[in-house]
Amino acid sequence: LSYNMSTVNGACSLSTSLLDLHSLRQVAWKSLAGAIDELPGRKCLVIDNTLLRPLNLLTDPNELRASHGVQTILALSDDTVVPSDVQNAVHVIRTQTAQSTRQVVQIIKRQLEPPAGPLVRHVVVMVPSVDFLCEQILEEEGVYGYVSKIVGVDLGLIPLEEDVLSLECDVLRPSLLDQDSVPHVEHVVSVLHQLQAMYGPIPHIVGKGASAKMVFDSLMAGTHATDKRVSTPGQITRLILLSRDIDLVTPLCTQLTYAGLIDETFSSDASFVDIPGSQEDGGELRGSRVILNSNDKLFQEVRDMNFATLPSVLNQQARSLSEGLDVSQHTGNLKQLAQFVSKLGTMTHYKERLATHTSICSNIAGIASSDAFHQRIQHEQNILCGRDEEEAFAYIESSIVRGAVMLRVLRLMCLASLTQNGLKAKWYDQLRRSFLHTYGFEHISTLINLERIGLFKKRDEGRNAFNALRKSLSLINEKVDDRAPDDMAYVYSGYAPLSVRLLQHTMKTGWAKAEDVLSLLPGPTINYDISGNPSDRARMLASNSGVTLIFFLEGVTQAEIAALRFLRKSVGKGAGLDFIVATSKIVTGDTLMASAGAERK
Amino acid sequence: MDYVSLPTADWHQVVNRYYRKREVYSMGWAPGEVDFSKLMAVAAPYGGPVAVTRDEKTIQAVTSGQLRPTLAMYSSSGTLLSSFIWDKGRLVGMGWTENERLICVLEDGTVLIYSVFGELILQFSMGRDCKEQQVMDVQVWSTGLVVLTHARQFYVVTDLENPRPRPLADPGLDENPTSWIVIDPLYTPSNAVEVFVATTSGTILVVHQQGVNDCVLNQGPFTKMAVSPTGKFLACFTSTGDLWVYPTDFRSELYRFPTQSTLTPTQMAWCGSDSIVMLFPKTEYLLMVTNGDWVRFALDDPVCIVGEVDGLRILSNSTCEFLQRVPDAVEEIFAVGSTAPAATLYDAAEHFERKSSKADEHIRSIKTELPAAVSQCIAAAGHEFSYPLQRQLLKAASFGKCFLEFHSPKEFVEMCKTLRVLNAVRHYEIGIPLTYEQYKQLTPQILVDRLVNRHQHLLAWRICDYLELKADKVMVHWASTKVKQSDTDDREIAQMIVQKLEKVSGVSYAEIASAAYKFGRPKLATMLLDYEPRAGDQVPLLISMNEDELALSKAIESGDTDLMYLALLYLKRTHQQRDFLRIVHDKPVAMDLLIAYCRQQDTELLKDLFYFFNQPEETAAVAALESYQERDLDSRLKRMHAALKDYSENKEFQFQARQTEEQIKLLLLQRELEASYNEKYVDLSLSDTLYRLCLAGESKRATKLRTEFKVPDKRFWWIRIKSLSETRDWDGIEKLSKEKKSPIGYEPFVEACLDGRNTQEAMKYIPKIVAPDKRAEYYLMVGAVREAVDVALKEKDPDIIMRLRTKTTNRDHLAFLESALDQFQKR
Hints:
By secondary structure, chain A is an alpha/beta fold. Helix content of chain A is 48%, strand content 12%. In chain A, helix 7 packs across helix 8 (210-221). Chain B contains 34 helices and 29 strands. By secondary structure, chain B is α+β, with helices and mostly antiparallel strands. The relative contact order of chain B is 0.04. The A-B interface holds A 97-98, 131-133, 136-137, 178-183, 186, 218, 221, 397-398, 401-403, 429, 432-434, 436-442, 444-445, 448, 601 and B 559-562, 564-566, 569, 589, 592-593, 595-597, 599-601, 617, 621, 624-625, 628, 655-656, 659-660, 662-663, 666, 683-688, 709, 711, 714-715, 718, 722, 744.
């Protein structure tokens, strides 16, 4: 059970980031280290499964051993047992669900069972804050007295990349099921306060959607009147808050960028990806865990490309590398040799990475070149274009009948429903029935949840907002060349992600003048400026050199980030789109579906 | 100018140092009201009050009107603060805490804590053991107390806010200790309570919680002990009349002084950190011992002495006096024949005032030492109680400053400020005779707290204002007192308080409200709470005031989920479920939280909640979910039936109702299947059930099931092909293909064969595929390239061949396709 953290530790180096993200990482680590040090002496660390990898991005296990007396690190599960020679145990858990707390309760109870060894001191670290209900559980279960201390630690936004920060918590639900929204909003607000404390006040805040408004209101309520009038803006000059429910369509589509497809195929977690072994090269089956971020220069170059171009790009890389590494070509004279040696380091790095990515690529290609995959993409695009509804229905129906992967089927069902303003009553019932017959009655709660959220529903009278958006934001661009793109639509081979198109649109018009588009999206609009004075605002925008923080409150996909990067590249630096993306977690349609229902038991 | 010219009149020389004993107050009480010779009296340090009560240990004549003893508290100037009849029981001892609370300990171990106004603040017991053993004696230090029982055991309380009596280690005494004393944990090396116990064998035991250490002394037995103000030294008086002084770690002995007294002093205290003062019975003087020398101070009256950090306060029946070593600065200036620069400066200033030219001469003579002289004069002013002397000294300093080009005025200004504060609190109406030294030790904040405790709110507030200290505590205390005293209308008081407190930042209205509530004015409390900006303070108080609904609303307003849960769960505990739900129902945020809570912890409540709010579909959904947690099929079915009933209540949920009904049917059927096939069926989906039946070759049963559940043809065919392909039943597949025209086309048949790598069988079904493109592709896939080209020829569509080219890498096939394409183009 012991989780060996030392095998993977390659958090993004952050050396060229727009903000000093390194200190952000330091703050998170220090608060956690403080909690670990609550108990002096040697100790055992028990970590919530969902926190293992995020923590890996914050610290080195050697540091834990050397400076914080951590002897063993265990992953929290139903049957974790603290070794008998341990006298101090620090449990790091999430408070989102009661499950982790219950598991800790079990650990403590197990410790007390006869024959009782020496009394173990327990500290419970709750992420992101001490939770009343979790405390209640400890109390009701009668182990409260055995816990020396309960500490809340907010890890805040963990840098995954130089331009991507993540809370690393599985909350897609919030905007969807309102019962859970309040804690998430609180968390986001406290994180925003922290950011403002570190990088200065944010003078300009815009946004869209219900949860965005909740965050905004709570943020304003917690900011004192005097702070609001600060004249010098900080390094972050603009904050864009986006609720996921303004664009649920995009994550439902299959991402076609390299990084996106890796996510879709292997489901990554905090930049860590488990790659299954491939049989092709010499029958080796061993899988591996890799961390993918911009430390890997090759990955940085290819991650946002459409997957279709990848094999040829990698081939070319391999060719130029083997030429470059051929010593005989470079040893004409000493100068050439010196040049060769100086490049050797980079080239070895590339060579090593090339092997990894070739393996990942062939793994994905096995799936992405299949007929079924092509058909699926074809139908997704037909649905997005609003073509033949009947054909779409027939395809979904046949997917169910064939017993395709449930989450994928759900994605298609929801995609059709969202773009068609709900399904015709007859089809709606028929799909639901087939679905339950095939995957089992227990999934009825999933369907009910999806209906309540409005992801999968019967057609009603309202007009189809997606049709209007498709036109006004020109979401479909079938002519885009995936290999040499001139439009962000290449990330979905012809569909430009709504969320990013919206940002592109407002870049041109300004947030205030985009009301025609914004009114088509659900939830209130936020447009706040510290000065409130239009001329000031104009001045501020004119001197727009700061960083824009784009906060996707309930998850963002790799493809959306790719589209944003494409946009940045096309408008050029300093054009008001020097952005950093913040989010709760990097998601895919699968995780969206899973959290919207399938796991809610 | 007489009083100024003789500041040395009350000085006494001991060895080479001067001591002075000065009257601070003449007592405000009526003559004879307090007689220390007949009373048990305890005075608090730092110019604190004195508590007196009849000493039950001495036999005395009860005068009329004094049948029952009273306990009275006076300020240092003899102003009565409070007095009440003592009817609590036999008092063993008293003592003062650092925040001027009086601790009274009774024989049965009861501890009573009073404010200076005689309000009982806290009462607790030292525990059952103490009660059984009966308390013999008690010692109080600034933040705690230790009692000695008749069983010669010590019990300690270290936290008076939250008293938990604990025993100290058993000292194992056979006889009562000859004397004992406790050291403030602040001064012990371990920061834990230590008790010094003098035994009849002549040694001292150090008793603490972990154990007992013997100091192995033989100079005793000691009959009286006193600890120096900083806890560094211990003065011990032996039965043979010797006074020993030890450091408190007993590493050495400092000195011995033989008093030749056969009697044990009744009172013994340190005067500052370098001398010890003793009062012997039946004598009319105080004996002061310092550095091996001694001096006597005659007494006119019985006294009560209390040690201070820099001296000794002597309360007598008629006066309050202060005995101290003359501070260095004062000595330098006023000592007869002093030629110190400060003395010269003081002289010069006097000459200047008299317009004598000597002033200039004096100043000139100390030119280089002038800055130090100025500082000395300022410091000396701080040590004086008399206004004229203070003024004179400050004038001298000010005069000296004129001759200095660069001299920071800070020192001077600070001292003036301090003196104004000190003079204010020394005023006999307030009666806190703090010296400069004591004031620095005590800190202005604590002085303010003490004033507040004595209800001197105005003075406290002015001092805060003057010294720029935070005044919120003063205001809160004032308001809390106000709500108790005033008989006026709630609204008026609330208004008055708010008006006064508006401008003070950081005021805790919750604290004032709490006081109002405790005093029995809940309405006023709620009114005040409205002004509390911190919901975290507001909500718990509202809950304790039983203002549950208001608490919930305030919690919701605050947006703090923890507070909401606190209020919600409290409401849930204290109310009938119906009432609880009624309170919650119009608060959507609270409802959402409650639902989230219930989903994790209390599904029964969740169902009740949905039922109460008439959302049967939600109740049903919960029941359906729960059914899956049931292991036993019968109880699961029971839950499903409940869900079905709820779903059926509303036509809108017809779909759910039908599905639930079907699922019940399916479960019952699966149970039968399990019985007849001895294979797992329960929990399979309908499709999987059909598939498994087909696999088992039970196609009849499958068909029956299929009709019962109206499974569409398409789906059923898929299931059948899948199961046949799984078992490689080629005949079965062929039979199926001939049953009737396939509703799902023939591609699945081909796929099934290809899955089994049987191209021969696949060839049977490829011709049946309708779409030419697909047909050609499958031909190519099984290697029948000629047939593939034939399809194109037949359809007269060269594009088919074009597309086929992209689907293969086989060279022969590619060549064949190329030539076919050529033929096409030639045509």
